[in-house]
Amino acid sequence: MPWSFDPFAGDILDDRIRGRGASDMKSAVAAFVAAADRLNRRQAPLAGDVILAFTAGESANCLGARHLVKQGFQKEIGAFLCGEPSTLDLIVVEKAILWLEAEARGEIGHVSGIRGVNAIDVMADAIIALRGLSLHLPSHSLLSPPSVAVGRISGGSAVNVTPDRCTAEIDVRFGPGIDPADVIAQIEAVLPPRMSLRTTDFKAAVEERPDSPFIETCSGAVLACTGRVPAVKGVSYYSDGAILLDGLDVPFAILGPGDLGMSGQTNETASANSIRACTDIYVKIAEEWLA
């Protein structure tokens, strides 16, 4: 898709910082760094450490967060504040992510002779079945319904050879507290013969109580710095919290200056005023929580 301005502009026009990654999530990186600088110059020390963790691969396999876990970083986490885009609202729950590889098996053949069984045709039937699938799972008041989406497909070796194998990568998203085995069973039930599934990745949902002390602290900081009470929401995206908080019982929130829904879009921008406000918010949260 074409951009109406240079995607690497990095300039500011009418309060909007323009460029790829401005909202997701260099805006939060800037606010975190600025907040840490201010906290570092405080005369009175905080009662605990503020640690900035900037990790690679968050939108895919979370390799940066997984590396931190291997280094033993989890023992340092007393509370987790994530800067993913939230438009300065508070995110208290994110969906679980289940990635599957579906494989269709056919029989190799040739269009001029014995045709065999076309694995791509088998996969096409499977994709149609998945498009009509409604997962029967518990609902969540802050989340949209579960989703099933085919993101990539591959099959065939030559245009005149019947393909005996076709694969598709499937993204499934659902709320907390749901066994992925139940989700897989529902998907398998609608697939045609000659199909198999294997799990390639699973990231559990992360959730915090909307009335927890940490959320109250974050909400109070937003109110103090912006004059408005932030909405409490859930999101369909996942964060590094799915990896860094695995097995932990610590406070969690997502709060960032980037616009919710702007991620991966053309003409990406972020509000400079929101970044400044978010810096103030981060400082206040740290000072209140680590008083």
Give me a quick take on this structure.
This protein is α+β, with helices and mostly antiparallel strands.
Keyword list:
291 residues; alpha+beta; Aminopeptidase; Alpha-Beta Plaits; 2 domains; four-stranded antiparallel sheet; three-stranded antiparallel sheet; 7 helices; 23% strand
Could you walk me through the main structural features you see in this protein, from its secondary elements to its overall organization?
The protein is α+β, with helices and mostly antiparallel strands. It folds into two domains: 12-94 and 205-289, Aminopeptidase (3-Layer(aba) Sandwich); 96-203, 2-Layer Sandwich (Alpha-Beta Plaits), CATH 3.30.70. Helix content is 30%, strand content 23%. It contains seven helices and 14 strands. It has helices at 22-40, 63-70, 119-131, 180-190, 213-226, 241-244, 272-289; strands spanning 12-13, 16-18, 80-82, 90-94, 96-105, 109-110, 147-155, 161-162, 165-174, 195-203, 206-207, 232-235, 252-254, 269-271. The protein has a four-stranded antiparallel β-sheet. It has a three-stranded antiparallel β-sheet with strand order 1-2-14. Strands 11-4-12 form a three-stranded mixed β-sheet. Strand 1 and strand 2 form a beta hairpin. The longest helix is centred in the N-terminal third of the chain and has 19 residues, at 22-40. It is elongated, with a radius of gyration of 23 Å. The model has no long low-confidence stretch (mean pLDDT 96).
